[in-house]
Amino acid sequence: MRRLLKASLAAGLALTAIISGCSGSAEKIRIGEVTRSLFYAPQYVAIEKGFFKEEGLEVELSTTWGGDKTMTALLSDGIDIALVGSETSIYVAQQGAADPVINFAQLTQTDGTFLVSRKKTDSFSFDQLKGSVFLGQRKGGMPQMVGEYVLKKNNIDPHGDLELIQNIEFKNIASAFASGTGEYVQLFEPEASQFEKNGIGHVVASFGKESGTVPYTVFMAKQSYLDKQQTAIQKFTNAIYKGQQWVDTHSAKEIADVIAPYFQDIQPEILEASVQRYKEQGSFATDPILDEDEWNRLQDIMDSAGELKERAPYGKLVNTTFAKTAKEGK
């Protein structure tokens, strides 16, 4: 991931030095989400249920497709707020950014991938992976780092005990497995539920359950933006908290009905089943506070994957002021 981000971050930092002016007003906020995922249900609920409007905000949502592109857009003021994995803020810090990227509101708190087996089994153990062909995720990204962390936790050497395939683009992993590549695959929803319905594969384990809580997807902004737009950031965080609470207190079907406009190619029953699976394992954070234990676990995972140059202090890259205020209702 560091190698993939290096060039983009350098370009973004250069653009930051050139571009002047405020990146957004107090009334309009531009969000760049790293991908379009039902994993981000509370965000879509906050939009659809009018929680941002209640706070007097207009939000402009775009999908930036990839951590490197998302960070470049943020650093160059193409967006005001990024929704992306917390590890990217650490990568930016490791590049020596003068204007650090600060995590201020957590959206998801577990990994969102599942271990899918081509063969159905009534009793799965991780030992069964030994000697198999495993279709993993991109090196340096959170899915792969969490995947390797969980395998090691279960006494599996990802690079010695199995044949690990990592050279397939994220968008093509599901189709590669469907066409016959690999005996096991690491997939997000809704592909996992869709594969079960079609008899292509069977979910045998959850990487989210196995790895514990981590700041998997977080809203972040440059320090300079947070300093200038404190009122807007507070309103934004208030709206996200309302979305999180709504998701926590409503059924998977109700949630699926609200977010359906964002996933028109997914069948309603698959969308509902996918949301239910995430709800059951606590993937959707119920408040936007990113705590220190989660932050430290994230860095343990990065360190285990060999992607952490040096540990980033919690107080340096995390600001919980807005999240705590939103939760307290002040």
From TrEMBL:
User: What cellular component GO annotations does this protein have?
Assistant: periplasmic space
Which UniProt keywords are listed?
Signal
Q: Does the keyword Signal apply?
A: yes
Compartments where found: Periplasm
Is-annotated flag, keyword Signal?
yes
Concerning its family, UniProt says: Belongs to the bacterial solute-binding protein SsuA/TauA family.
- Which PANTHER family does UniProt cross-reference here? ALIPHATIC SULFONATES-BINDING PROTEIN-RELATED, TAURINE-BINDING PERIPLASMIC PROTEIN
Q: What is this protein called?
A: ABC transporter substrate-binding protein
Q: Which organism is it from?
A: Brevibacillus composti
What does the organism's lineage look like at the top?
Bacteria, Bacillati, Bacillota, Bacilli, Bacillales
